[in-house]
Amino acid sequence: MGASAALLSAAGVIGAVVAMMVDGRRAVAIAVVFLAAGLAPTAATFGGAPGVAVLGACAIAAVLLALAGSIAGRILPWLSGLDPTIPAFAPSDRLFGPRSSRAFGAAAAIPVASWVSFNVPIGQITTAVQGLLFPIAYAWTCGVIRLLVARTLEDLAVGVAMVSVPTGTAWLLRSGADSFPGAVLACVAAPLAAFVAGWLNGRGARRTHSRVEAEG
Amino acid sequence: MNPLVTAAVWLALGLLASAALRRRTARLVAVVPLVGAGLTLLVARSSTVAVPLGGLDAITGLDRAGQGVLVAAGLSMTLVILLQPSIDVSVGRTIGIVGAAATIAMASSDPLVTALALTAAVATLVLRWIGQSPGRATLAAGRVTGTGTAALIAASPLLPLAGFTTGDRPIVVGALLATGVAALLAVYPLGGWAAGIMASLRPLDIAPWLILLVPVVLLIGERIPGGVLGDGSPVFEHVLLVVGLGSAVWGGIWAVRGPAAMRYGRVFMADIALCIAAVEGAPVSPALSGALIIVMTHLTVAPILLRSADAGLLWPRRVAWALLSGVPPAPTFWGRLLLLEALAAGNVGSTIAAVIAMAAIFIAAVLACSTRARLRPASGWSRRLPDLAAWLLIAVGIAIGLAPHSVSAFVFGG
User: Fold this and answer.
1) What integer is the mean pLDDT of B355-360?
2) What number of C-beta contacts closer than 8 Å exist between A and B?
3) How close A174 gets to chain B, by Cα (Å)?
4) Helices B404-412 and B64-83: crossing angle, nearest 10°?
5) How far is A49 from chain B (nearest CA, A)?
6) Looking at the complex, does the CB of residue B384 fall below 8 Å from at least one CB of chain A?
7) Which residues of A touch B150 (CB under 8 A)?
8) Lowest-confidence pick of A34-43, A72-81, B94-103
9) Of the ranges A44-48, B95-99, B189-193, B300-304, which one carries the lowest mean pLDDT score?
10) What is the 8-class DSSP label of residue B46?
11) pTM above 0.90, yes or no
12) For the packed helices B64-83 and B287-305, what is the interaxial angle rounded to 10 degrees?
């Protein structure tokens, strides 16, 4: 029995929407975990257990590297830097905030992903797949929208992760000898983005801590 | 030597320079691009041109043109550092990572590896830019270049296009690749970020993008339609032709109207936009030769013009602007003539737009030549060395103008 395209799509959409809305110091790791979980059914359908393992390893690596980056940023004493969760500039008060624009973007991504899924085949000429690209195209489009409306470095890192994980899953769909190496390579960007965000968070937290101590 | 080894040396030296050097020894950051350029000369030569439209494949060597671009860019970056009045050693890290990424992107024929290398370069640059000057312009740089590299990454699982040269797939791939190239080259409507960072950052912070990354992306962009792109080829070429010409006209106009401090950046953007428009608008033509001559001229004069006008070099700056004016025997005359010849073979609209852009660049160069600056008199060897280096660069620029094809063939191969 083949996998239900609707179920695969629903799982991908839930993962992408969570990744689109998440904010805060652990946003990248959370986004990668939810995206990997949401796209895992698609990966399992086309890549089997190794496909799920690629996404699982990506999620675990993102969590661990975010933690390692944060700890390293707190410990290493000779570096100081900017806080990735503080907006790079202060926009004027508006009726709709950053999350509203992201929610609007997530809604607008549905027809784009739907068109891609129905019209763009993926894979080699003999093993081409069509009509099952929706969760991947949706997560990727959401990632680009998150990049375009980013206000902080954390947003940019989440956007990179949101592009990386679905691209890795797309490599699993295309099948062929380079399918798994391609998937692994594409997924590498997500844990790296988590590490950089964790590192910057650690440094930001240390600076805030030392400022509080100095004032006390 | 494998290009990956060269990239590793770029990376290691960059990290080491930013960690070990202090203010007194900051100028030694120049060793990073100098060694990178030297090692690039030793890289194994590849007989085939790397077009990033294939499948996953091992990186084995660099083709002649790619090697020439990387060596020239490395030497130019070295001179940019040496001619700066003051240097922040942490820029060594950025230069190292961008140099390594440019080497891998140039050597790889796999779209995913190329896209990831460009993503690493752009992420490093954006982190530095936002750290140096948090604001709307630097954040926009992150948004747009991030979107550009995301588009290149997204195209990777859809390539190669063997068996799918018609239909929607090649068109989607062509659009994604055009978006990526336009965003990284800062071609309008995706180019506002570059104008913004030129206004808010020091020249040395912009130099890794301008000198190390842009020539590489330009060359990759030129090669893409040569691969199997099917129906995507006209999409890729026509999009870049139209936005390139529009961007060249816009950049030329703002080079005339805008502040003097941003004039060189605007002229550079306009020239690069003209190059990408011509090489995409007329692929089988003298456009590539013209683009390479223009790139080489910019790599020669950038070390002089990326130094602020108040920091000396008044006469070398004026002569450098004359070299960019497009008046013979300036090398840009030959470069722009070849671009115009290529565009004229297409249609009259392209030719008119290119002539307007070139006229605007000429006026901007004349305005820059006539700018006055108050200078402190130079005394001692340490103060006169920048003048000497600048005049040597001018001599190289004049040599390019006198024998453009020979010099171009020497640097980039026949």
Assistant:
1) 96
2) 105
3) 7
4) 100
5) 20
6) no
7) 140, 143-144, 147, 159-160, 163
8) A72-81
9) B189-193
10) P
11) yes
12) 20
Residue B155, number of CB atoms within 10 A of its CB: 25
Which pLDDT score is estimated for B31? 95
3-state secondary structure chain B: CCHHHHHHHHHHHHHHHHHHCCHHHHHHHHHHHHHHHHHHHCCCECCCCCCCCCCCCCCCCECHHHHHHHHHHHHHHHHHHHHCCCCCCCHHHHHHHHHHHHHHHHHCCCHHHHHHHHHHHHHHHHHHHHHHCCCHHHHHHHHHHHHHHHHHHHHHHHCCCCCCCCCHHHHHHHHHHHHHHHHHCCCCCCCHHHHHHHHHCCHHHHHHHHHHHHHHHHHHHHHHHHCCCCCHHHHHHHHHHHHHHHHHHHHHHHHHHCCHHHHHHHHHHHHHHHHHHHHHHCCCCCHHHHHHHHHHHHHHHHHHHCCCHHHCCHHHHHHHHHHHHCCCCCHHHHHHHHHHHHHHCCCHHHHHHHHHHHHHHHHHHHHHHCCCCCCCCCCCHHHHHHHHHHHHHHHHHHHHHHCHHHHHHHHHCC
Please indicate whether residue A138 or residue B383 has the higher confidence score (pLDDT): A138
The answer to whether B309 and B373 have CB atoms below 8 angstroms apart is: yes
* Phi, psi dihedrals of residue B192, rounded to the nearest 5°: -60, -30
Nearest CA in chain B to A169: B157
Distance of CA A112 to the CA centre of its chain: 18
Distance CA B85, CA A189 (A): 37
pLDDT of residue B54: 77
Over pLDDT 70: what percentage of chain B? 95
A163 contact residues in B (CB cutoff 8 A): 150, 153-154
Domain count, chain A: 1
Phi and psi at B229, nearest 5°, equal -120, -10
Q: Which residue of B has its CA nearest to A120?
A: B169
Residue A103 — pLDDT band, cuts 50, 70, 90?
Answer: very high
Q: Which two tokens stand for residue B391?
A: 């005049």
Contact A144 B151 (CB under 8 A): yes
Annotate B125-153 with b (16+ C-beta within 10 A) or e (fewer). Answer: bbbbbbebbbbebbbbbbbbbbbbbbbbb
Per the CB < 8 A criterion, the answer to whether B70 and B87 are in contact is no
Q: Do A88 and B134 touch (CB under 8 A)?
A: yes
Strand partners, A122: A129
Contact B150 A144 (CB under 8 A): yes
Instruction: Give the residue extent of every domain in chain B.
Output: 1-221, 231-373+380-414
State the residue for tokens 């004026």.
Answer: B318
Domain that holds residue A12: 5-87+95-215
Assigned token pair, B326: 């497009």
- Helix, strand, coil share (%) of chain B residues, nearest 5: 75, 0, 25
Which of A159, A171, A176 faces B146 most closely, judged by CB atoms? A159
Rounded-to-integer distance, Cα B400 and Cα A89, Å: 44
Reported ipTM: 0.91
Helices (H), B108-211: 111-132, 136-155, 168-184, 192-200, 203-207
| CA distances (Å), origin B204, targets B29, B81, B242 | 12, 7, 31
Average pLDDT over residues B343-369: 92
